[in-house]
Design a protein that fits this description.
This protein has 22 helices and 13 strands. With 692 residues, the protein is an alpha/beta fold. It has an 8-stranded parallel beta barrel. The longest helix is centred in the last third of the chain and has 33 residues. The two termini are 33 Å apart. 52% of the residues are buried. The structure holds 4-O-methyl-beta-D-glucopyranuronic acid.
Length: 692
């Protein structure tokens, strides 16, 4: 349950010698809660790596010195001047230097948090079994606000949470402080996460009452030494619900004053409170539109309330709007682009990676690049709402990386989404990345043991959105299980392929949102009876006897016009559209000939089949790993993979039987006889896999 902070015993004699020779003691310069937790982390690691403490020493050869820049001797500060120029206020330097005449490994930064991040970095180097020689490492985060979003309710249920109940024991706070809170903070700090939104975006205004602010304060105090700021979701109608006002109109003076007083009250208790995350006028949440006001009016009112305290507002772009009813994918863009440049300086617009909703695969959201004068914050979903909950093994950093690497072309070639997010494309001062957490009170935190890798990977990419997902997988595997190459190599490959596998057995070739509605688990392409048309799978796949797919070209919804010309042009024809997005942008006949000379129907079937076969391969790979993994984790993952296999078949059979009604074509010979009829799948009462 130590996540990636296992600090497995170092058994290699040479390596152990290298480490213990290089670091024979520790010296801490100065004093602060953050330095204390840095030192504690070293001790925890040392006991686990070597079975002993790291002695505190005042001076001598080969000691590890921890301290921030202004605690260093003048001369050393001067010598390191150019190193310090390379890092920002949260960055760190790990370097071999002469300290008081002795050879020393120094971990330093401009802040204590920098020193803590440096400490975790050194421990990572050791977990990865890298030699400590000629150390000269420096690093800084490329994104400022690296934030988890918990969709946790005050009754401890978690919206779209599959790892038990919320870890926040609201009813026992502030009296009971669980060790889990500290472990949560450690884990986050170790990957550079520096903020957490404690509550669901479908918000409850109760959390803004005095009683709850005390509870929030207690958590903030646990997190503070780890550099983690606390944020809350603000329900827009709180002035009515909590303040007894008659309106929540953002232009009303009393309302504005209420929010200012609320901010003052929170900051009096929690001076480093981060600010608010807001879902307004979306899926029944109240917002400024209720009063005929705009998203800018709403966001700027809250921004004004927190600005004197250094707080920020993360305003979500996940809205439905009356513009473009024929294509939900266009709505956020239509709603927000006209406001570019009008948001206050401390507002980030938080945009989901794709325009629909956290699908196994989506093209990047057209808002990225389209609002050069507004800082856009990325919102990824770590919890697997549409990807098999905590049952399917899917390595999400691969998905995150794909979005970040996409080229928006807004400023010519190489205008990647990562550059929009880190601010380099248009020189933004405020930058951020949010991840909807997959954490709950399950003993292993995330339900599926491999869900931990998605939390880990989110943190690493929020720190550096240019990181390679393969490197992330490798780090995580070594830190979580073992450094043995015979384990790491095949498992890394399996993790990297796992995302494409889920796309194949759920939504190949650009299909999307064909899950059963409500819970979003399992196939439901037939569903068509929900009140909002855009919640129905049939709205998205549009299968009929003429073909399948959503025409988003100029002959259809023309969502393509929201992208820069090179993309709009390229994707306007099915011949030049990447096959992975084919049915996202085009409605094509079932016998449409694809690049391999086979029909669309044939290719769809073969993707579903490949998906199933790849899960079979995953189970085989895992079975070969038994000797490297403890029994508990081995058994759990084995069982989950068996369920995943059953469900991949369920997806294949249900989707192909459904689509075949329209294609009217033979099932290709490689598709085994389905275990059940389409009617059976349609009438399943349980959201989980039928016996297959
Ligand atoms: C928190 O609400 C969620 C909702 O559960 C989810 O199904 C939808 O996709 O997205 C919403 C959102 O992101 O606001």
């Amino acid at each position: 349950y130590d996540l990636w902070l296992q600090y497995n015993k170092i058994t290699d004699a040479q390596l152990q010698k290298n480490y213990l020779n290089k670091i024979q003691g520790i010296k801490i310069l100065g004093n602060s809660p953050t330095l204390n937790v840095s030192a504690e982390e070293m001790q925890t690691a040392w006991k686990s790596f070597f079975g002993k403490e790291l002695p505190e020493k005042n001076s001598g050869e080969n000691i590890l010195v921890l301290g921030k820049m202004d605690q260093l001797p003048q001369q050393l500060q001067k010598n390191l001047k150019s190193d310090f120029e390379n890092i920002n206020s949260e960055g760190y330097i790990i370097k071999e230097v002469k300290f008081e005449g002795n050879n020393t490994i120094l971990i330093t930064g401009k802040s204590h948090i920098g020193v803590l991040y440096g400490s975790f970095r050194l421990l990572r180097e050791m977990q990865l079994h890298n030699k400590l020689s000629n150390l000269d490492i420096y690093d800084s985060s490329k994104i400022q606000k690296r934030v988890l979003n918990h969709w946790d309710n005050l009754d401890r249920t978690v919206e779209r949470g599959y790892a038990g109940f919320s870890i926040w024991d609201w009813h026992l706070l502030p009296d009971l402080i669980k060790p889990e809170y500290t472990n949560y903070a450690r884990a986050n700090a170790s990957i550079g996460i520096n903020g957490t939104v404690l509550t669901n975006v479908n918000a409850n205004s109760l959390v803004l009452t005095e009683e709850y602010i005390k509870k929030v304060k207690a958590l903030a105090e646990v997190f503070r030494p780890y550099g983690i700021q606390v944020y809350l979701t603000a329900r827009f109608s709180s002035p009515i619900e909590n303040g007894g006002l008659e309106t929540a109109d953002p232009l009303n003076e009393e309302v504005r004053q209420w929010w200012k007083d609320k901010a003052d009250q929170i900051y009096a208790e929690i001076p480093d409170f981060g600010g608010f995350l807001v879902k307004a006028n979306s899926e029944g949440q109240p917002g400024p539109n209720n009063y005929g006001r705009s998203h800018v009016d709403g966001a700027n009112m809250l921004a004004e309330a927190v600005a004197p305290h250094g707080g920020i507002i993360m305003w979500r772009a996940f809205v439905y709007s009356e513009h473009d009813p024929e294509d939900r994918a266009k709505q956020a863009y239509s709603e927000f682009v006209p406001f570019d440049g009008e948001f206050a300086d401390n507002v980030l617009l938080q945009v989901k990676n794709g325009a629909i909703d956290f699908q196994p695969r989506e093209p990047f959201h057209p808002l990225f690049g389209a609002m050069p004068n507004t800082p856009l914050m990325m919102e990824f979903q770590i919890t697997q709402e549409y990807l098999g909950f905590a049952t399917h093994l899917v390595f999400l950093p691969k998905l995150f990386e794909e979005t970040l690497e996409e080229d928006t072309y807004v400023n010519g070639e190489n205008s990647t989404v990562a550059k929009v997010i880190d601010g380099t494309l248009s020189n933004k001062k405020l930058t951020g990345m949010a991840g909807v957490a997959n954490i709950g009170n399950e003993r292993n935190w995330t339900g599926h043991p491999f869900g931990q890798a998605n939390w880990y990977g989110f943190g690493r990419l929020a720190w550096d959105p240019y990181m390679d997902s393969g490197d992330i997988a490798e780090e995580w595997l070594k830190m979580t299980f073992t450094n043995n190459e015979e384990f790491v190599e095949p498992m890394k490959e399996m993790m990297l392929e796992s995302r494409e596998t889920v796309v194949k057995y759920m939504t190949p070739l650009g299909l999307h949102h064909i899950m059963r509605t409500g819970h979003h688990y399992g196939p439901g392409p037939w569903v068509s009876n929900l009140s909002r048309p855009e919640w129905n799978p049939v709205y998205y796949h549009k299968a009929d006897s003429a073909g399948v797919g959503f025409d988003r070209t100029s002959s259809g919804s023309n969502a393509l016009e929201q992208y820069a010309d090179p993309i709009a042009e390229k994707y306007s024809s099915p011949e030049t559209t990447p096959e992975k997005y084919l049915l996202w942008f085009h409605h094509l006949p079932w016998d449409y000939e694809m690049k391999n000379g086979k029909t669309l129907w044939y290719n769809m079937a073969s993707k579903y089949q490949e998906g199933v076969e790849e899960v079979e391969d995953m189970t085989e790979t895992w079975n070969n790993m038994e000797q490297y993994v403890d029994e508990e984790r081995f058994e759990k993952v084995s069982m989950l993979l068996q369920i995943q296999l059953k469900e991949a078949k369920w997806w294949r059979d249900a989707c192909l039987l459904y689509f075949q009604q329209f294609s009217n074509m033979e099932m290709p010979e490689f598709i085994p006889e389905p275990a059940h009829t389409l009617e059976y799948y349609k009438n399943l009462k349980t959201p989980y896999a039928p016996g297959i």
